[in-house]
Write a structure and sequence with these properties.
Strand content: 25-35%
CATH superfamily: Glucose Permease (Domain IIA)
Distance between the termini: 37 Å
Structural class: alpha+beta
CATH class: Mainly Beta
Number of helices: 2
Order of helices and strands: HEEEEEEEEEEEH
């Protein structure tokens, strides 16, 4: 009986040591991740409530360029996030809402969606360059396709979709729409007692 208790205690200690080592050796989060959990009404710090339920393209796409708020209204910056996406990739809404614009702006296809239940004025996401499959006024569900990435019109050096977020005329960080479980890649545990790592 004592041996079994000692064995259980030893296993617990080994697991605690492994978890502590995994936490210490884990790489730091990428710079484009929001630093803290967003708060519902924090327009002044560039965050928004985490109402998102899906990435606009793919599953955890590569962020080519993060959100860089300008120092002044007309200053230099990057008012959105560029996500790697090949031409023809479906573009999806991150949350439920209504299409407020679907058309061309300066030769680029743009789709804008007002997100339901996000206050007054509501949050509005924008995507470009996108060949729209929806029209102004359409109701869309979270994760629903609203178009595909166009082959031309992107400002990125690699194929991408630009994802923006606004409340009225104020640009916010669109990544703060996504809850942590969508932003972070799942952790991988180290093998126990020299076993092979999972493939």
């Amino acid at each position: 009986m004592r041996t079994m208790r000692w064995a259980r205690t030893a296993v617990r200690l080994v697991l605690l040591v492994i978890m502590a080592l995994a936490a210490l050796l884990a790489p730091p989060p990428p710079s484009w991740l929001p630093a803290a959990a967003p708060t519902p009404a924090a327009e002044d710090d560039g965050t928004a409530p985490a109402v998102g339920r899906a990435w606009p393209v793919g599953v955890r796409p590569r962020v080519l360029r993060g959100w860089e708020p300008p120092a002044t209204v007309y200053g230099r910056g990057h008012r959105g996030v560029d996500l790697a996406a090949a031409p023809g990739t479906p573009v999806r809404t991150v949350a439920a809402g209504r299409v407020s614009f679907a058309g061309r702006v300066a030769g680029r296809g743009v789709v804008s969606v007002e997100l339901a239940g996000t206050g007054d004025p509501p949050l509005r996401t924008t995507f470009e360059p996108v060949r729209a499959s929806v029209a102004k006024g359409d109701e869309v569900a979270a994760g629903e396709a609203i178009g595909t990435v166009e082959p031309a019109g992107s400002h990125c050096t690699a194929p991408c979709v630009h994802w923006g977020l606004l409340r009225a005329d104020t640009y916010l960080n669109p990544l703060t729409l996504l809850p942590p479980w969508l932003l972070h890649r799942p952790s991988r545990l180290l093998p126990v007692l020299g076993g092979a790592a999972p493939g």
